[in-house]
Design goal:
heterodimer; A: 702 residues; Rossmann fold; seven-stranded mixed beta sheet; two-stranded antiparallel sheet; 32 helices; B: 75 residues; mainly beta; SH3 type barrels; five-stranded antiparallel beta sheet; 5 strands
């Protein structure tokens, strides 16, 4: 489907953008108009997602449709909103100024939605206003006079119910209209003193100080407000002008301290006056379905029970249902590997295909069942509106370490797998909170650590006499250690990365909605595509590199263990031995650490090669454990003392031994800076923690 | 009296918003302005944040911010 996009030239088809508040049903409209004919990418340089699709007018003409980030105001206070503002002002080189704006309003919430809408209408781009979710308004007995609204706003107004496609045909006809005039200007009266001061400021900026796109038209108070309030970082205009704007803004602030508040109040006065004629509220406040549901879901007791129930279902699904497909994928890929082994002659090419490419692709695909289940669940919670409630309940807990309620679900997901956890941080609006959440997610003990923990606990307590409770206790303490680490580092990063002052944590609790499975399916399709295409290429590359590192240079010995020792990985393992010796490890463990960068569970299979344990198919932990217990140091004492096992486990609690997480963090932060920082700090933390465990333990004679 | 002093379920008119401290623009742009009618719906199970309703909007904000919003005591 993306092929269509590639061949369409952007100049010949009109560009239409979808804008609106968060939760106004914008995505549902985008899906209804474009279906699968869309692609998701990142805006260059920022982590804001760009969604672009093709839709057809009733006559069959192509229209390019861009879904812009949801926002409450054009006065940008986040990178998302800055993108919206800059595209609408025509200030981004990657996106031409749109020919048409589809401005979506939530019918049950007109006043607040009109705040953004009036700002957009003032820009003078031909605009169509969509009043979406009219069913919700009808349920609340709100009577909207669409003709009056159309007159008030000076542009076409279309009632729509996007989830049932009611009104979609009318929308398409409006979209296809050849000559849509720009909306009539809206006269919002500012207090005269402020008006004077603003005009004055604009006069000082004339003539347009530079050729920055979007600034060639003359300055008016509206543009001045947009560019001088809020987020200034991504202005992208020359320094002289930025300096001038900042100076004028400061002067204005000195003259009229609350001028920004006055502009907001004036706009709301206009909206509220207009709404008096266009919207009729019921005499008595209706108790809505949302009110009744919230009485349960946010109840001090039932609320907690609901949270626990939802999360139990989620984890049950992940650990029971995902298990089947994951083992099918594993068998499927190993069967494919065997097939290739049988058909191709032995040699490097065959090894590359089997151990590098097929194993690499398998390493990507193996995550899909967990990702699909987690994202189905996340999509469901988002679409019904429950996600915001979960954040509301959890906010207090997360705020203790400087995060907010929205970090809770990504963090929890990471106990299954950090990859979907990182992808789920999209819902965190505050960029700083989002980054910190991503940085600490790998500390949640994911399921790939289990095999390592199990092997080490088995080696630590080989006797059957010790009760299973002790073993379980050790396991649980590893999970607690990781969780503790995540909170500590979140706290530290919150202190050290806090460059800008904290903004008020305001979260909208949208009305509950019946979930749209079509929307959730599209969401799954999109996320899976991102993971397979973006992260997949990086994962495949790293796994081929790791394969090469453990297979080259070639030794003459047919023995796998000797070959591994001879390889780059083996040699590096021996080189780093002095470095890891204080942790209680030798070079053989070093090879395991290096190889398990692919994924943590690879440690176990690497150890079977290192110690030549013959167990081809299922890695029998007991066999490997017995072998580990006979391994001795050069002085004859045992290598795998309980302390070394503990030190290794602690190392794995902290270390970011996972190329898939690295790859997805790269995609989600749009740079190599943060994944590499994460790899660095987690490896350092792992080293220090394991070192302390071993050294302190040795001091006490263990 | 500020917004966090309200009893759950009661309604009041906003008198003023602190101009300093936390960034309250977002709240203003969402309609929490002097003269707006705001209802405190409930506190979260852990006592913070709190849910307010104004017009058709339900918002969650932290106590820390709610304390910056002065209200006229309800009748």
């Amino acid at each position: 489907m993306t092929g269509n996009l590639a061949t369409s030239s952007p100049t010949t088809h009109p560009t239409c953008v979808l804008v609106g508040n968060p939760n106004c049903g914008k995505t549902t409209i985008f899906n209804a108009l474009t279906g699968l004919r869309h692609k998701v990418s990142n805006y260059p340089g920022v982590t804001v997602e760009r969604k672009e699709g093709i839709c057809f007018s009733p006559r069959g003409d192509r229209i390019k449709l861009i879904d812009l980030p949801g926002a409450y105001s054009l006065n940008a206070r986040s990178p998302d909103e800055a993108i919206l503002r800059d595209i609408l002002l025509g200030r981004r080189s990657d996106t031409p100024r749109p020919d048409r704006v589809l401005c979506v309003l939530d019918a049950s919430n007109l006043e607040r939605n009109l705040y953004l809408a009036t700002q957009i209408i003032e820009l003078g781009i031909p605009t169509i206003v969509i009043v979406n979710m009219i069913d919700l308004a009808e349920n609340q007995r709100l009577k909207i006079d669409f003709a009056a609204l159309q007159k008030l706003l000076g542009c076409p107004v279309i009632p729509l119910q996007a989830n049932t496609k009611k009104g979609l045909v009318e929308l398409k006809f409006a979209l296809a209209q050849e000559h849509l005039p720009p909306p009539a200007p809206i006269e919002i009266r500012l207090p005269s003193e402020l008006n004077e001061a603003l005009s004055d400021a604009c006069r000082q900026l004339e003539p347009p100080a530079d050729e920055s796109p979007g600034l060639t038209r003359s300055w008016d108070p509206g543009t001045f407000c947009l560019l001088s309030q809020g987020e200034n970082e991504s202005l992208g205009i020359n320094e002289e002008l930025t300096g001038k704007l900042t100076r004028l803004r400061r002067e204005l602030e000195a003259q009229i301290p609350n001028w920004e508040e006055q502009t907001i109040s004036a706009r709301y006065r206009w909206i509220r006056k207009g709404c008096r004629s266009a919207v009729r509220h019921p005499e008595t406040q209706q108790t809505t379905l949302t009110d009744r549901l919230d009485a349960v879901f946010l109840h001090p007791l039932w609320g907690w029970l609901t949270v626990v129930f939802c999360l139990s279902v989620l984890f049950y699904l992940i650990f029971s249902i995902a298990d089947g497909p994951m083992s099918w994928i594993e068998t499927g890929f190993s069967a494919a590997g065997k097939r290739v082994e049988a058909t191709l002659p032995a040699g490097d090419l065959r090894d590359l295909i089997v151990d590098g490419v097929i194993a690499g692709i398998g390493g990507v695909v193996i995550f899909l069942p967990q990702i699909l289940i987690l994202f189905f669940f996340i999509g469901l919670m988002e679409d019904t509106g429950y996600m915001a409630r979960l954040a509301f309940i959890m906010d207090r807990l997360m705020s203790r370490v400087g995060l907010n309620g929205k970090s809770f679900l990504p963090l929890l997901s990471s106990y299954a797998c950090a990859v979907p956890g990182v992808m789920a941080t999209r819902t965190i609006e505050n960029p700083k909170d989002r980054l910190i959440t991503i940085l600490v997610l790998p500390l949640a003990s994911c399921s790939a650590r289990l095999p390592v923990y199990l092997l080490m606990i088995a080696a630590m307590i080989p006797t059957e006499q010790v009760s299973a409770f002790v073993k379980a206790g050790i396991m649980v303490s590893m999970y607690l250690l990781g969780t503790f680490g995540a909170f500590v580092f979140a706290w530290v990063f919150n202190r050290s990365l806090a460059k800008r002052e904290s903004t008020a944590m305001v979260l909208e609790l949208p009305s509950y909605k019946t979930p749209s499975f079509r929307k959730i399916f599209l969401f799954l399709w999109e996320r899976t595509g991102i993971f397979v295409r973006r992260a997949g290429t990086i994962i495949l590359g790293i796994s081929i590199l790791l394969w090469a590192a453990s297979n080259y240079p070639k030794s003459d010995s047919p023995d796998n263990a000797v070959q591994l020792q001879h390889s780059v990985a083996g040699q590096v393992g021996q080189v780093i031995e002095p470095l890891i010796a204080p942790l209680g490890y030798d070079w053989k463990i070093g090879i395991g650490l290096l190889a398990s960068f692919a994924a943590r569970e690879v440690f176990v299979s690497t150890m079977t090669i290192v110690y030549q344990v013959e167990s081809e198919d299922e890695v029998e932990i007991r066999v490997l454990r017995d072998r580990l217990l006979t391994e001795t140091k050069p002085d004859g004492s045992l290598r795998y003392t309980p302390l070394v096992c503990l030190s290794l486990m602690v190392f794995y609690v902290f270390a970011m031994q996972c190329m898939s997480t690295l790859a997805i963090v790269k995609r989600e932060t749009n740079s190599w800076k943060w994944p590499l920082f994460q790899l660095g700090y987690l490896t350092l933390a792992a080293y220090v923690a394991a070192l302390s465990v071993f050294q302190v333990g040795s001091l006490f004679g263990y | 009296m500020n917004l966090a002093d309200l009893k759950p379920g009661s309604t009041a008119i906003v008198a003023s918003l602190a101009s300093h401290g936390a960034d309250l623009y977002r709240l203003r742009e969402m309609g929490v302005l002097p003269g707006s009618e705001v209802k405190l719906v409930r506190f979260a199970p852990l006592g913070d944040p709190l849910e307010i309703a104004l017009g058709g909007t339900r918002l969650s904000l932290r106590r820390q911010e709610a304390e910056l919003i002065e209200i006229h005591p309800p009748k």
